[in-house]
Structures
1.
Amino acid sequence: MRWDEILDISSFEEGTVISMITTEGIFRHAEIVKICCPICAEVFIGTKKHAGAFIFGHREYHKWEIEISELM
Ligand SMILES: [Zn+2]
């Protein structure tokens, strides 16, 4: 199953292991995880690889928010 063909991510539960084909390569035994940003409470459900991007994105975004607030 291609990752971009998955329309209903809610059908995945934490701990589900999938294989997927993306433009980056083939991922086998990719575990679905559910994580929540402790600052804004946004929830992400997806593979660990994508969760890492979610964490990095939120970390950088919230750092930026703090930097901006300190300038004002
Ligand atoms: Zn956040």
2.
Amino acid sequence: MSELSKCFYQVTAGRSCRDLCHPEYATCWQSFVGITKTLLPGSYKLYLSLLVIPPLVKGGGYTVEYWRNHILGYVSLSFKTYVQAISGLTLQCLLYKLFGKLHYYCLMGVPGFVSAALVPWLPRVHLRLQGVTYFNMMLEVMIRKSKLRYLQKLRTSKLWATVCFMLFSAKIMHVLRAETVNQFWIMYPATGKEDKMGNTPQKRKIAPCLHDASCRSYVLDGIWKYALVGFTIEAARGVLSKGSLVYGEPSRFLQELRQSIGFELPLFLATYVGSFRGLSCWLAHHTGRERLGHARLAGLLSGVCYLIYPKYQIFTLGFTKFLEMSWEHHLNTVKEKSSWLKLLQRIPYLRLVHMISIGYMYHALVFHSHLSPPFNSKCVNYCSDFRVERIKRRLVSWMLEHSWSIVGQ
Ligand SMILES: [Zn+2]
Ligand SMILES: [Zn+2]
């Protein structure tokens, strides 16, 4: 597929945005009206898992307010993504009109970047969700694409990736325990809140750990709850992806659902959390008192569980969280902020990351599709009603025609 980038201008010479993007519509305006009418359900379908999975794994606190915010959040995010999809696809036509020819970067990359910039104001939580998801996918493609030797080693070596994940985990658990950052991670350490609330030293002497209940139930509770969360995520994902079979072939549905549910994710979550909690308790008892450094050591060692579920998604999640949390920790703990730090602080990183990574991933979907993760094509194809897939296929068929014509000469 990378061949496509080499002969893009030869194969698209003399072709218009209509030939490539919307042969089913005579004009760009008709195309705009057509997509405006048809793309809405795709965005709602894309975020269905975001509607279903969080309440399933939440495990309590289902107030009316929670449901209202949750459903409104889903409706709003889906609608804004729909607007983003329309603007991205329409920009392809506008950029063609502007330059008078199809341009390599203006086909997917620039429209993706600009449409992400144009999307109506996204709440920070959704901007973060989209931005971090796309940034993680961008990292995945960059690692796969890179010719750097050490990166290739990292890509193929589970050992290296595990060591890196262990280091990310150590730093993340350390800053979460120190309570200098307040961000999402797979698990959270018991913090010293009881201390701040004035627990007496005697109580800590009896129970050196900071968690409630006994150490045994603390560890077992983590293992059980996280295994259940992993299993729920896998089951919900399976039902959402195979759900359409219920109507057509119910017998195949159960069989395929069973096959699609993996046990690696629940096992990874349960062992990661269980080993972290177990080690923290052991260290606290062994040294007689819970210390800040224990979270770092337990985080480091429990990171070895990455071997059970060595996925890019987990690795890149660890990496981005490591960067984000280290940065926030630094900002919150530095004694005096230098002028360059103040300047850096003013840069809207999340917004920039969101725009750049969406542009990059749109481009990668068409021009480096063998490197693009399946989730990327799912996102774009759901939201564009498979128009981008058709664009890609047209380009490939033009390329084949072009190479045949060269062979024939
Ligand atoms: Zn057009
Ligand atoms: Zn304990």
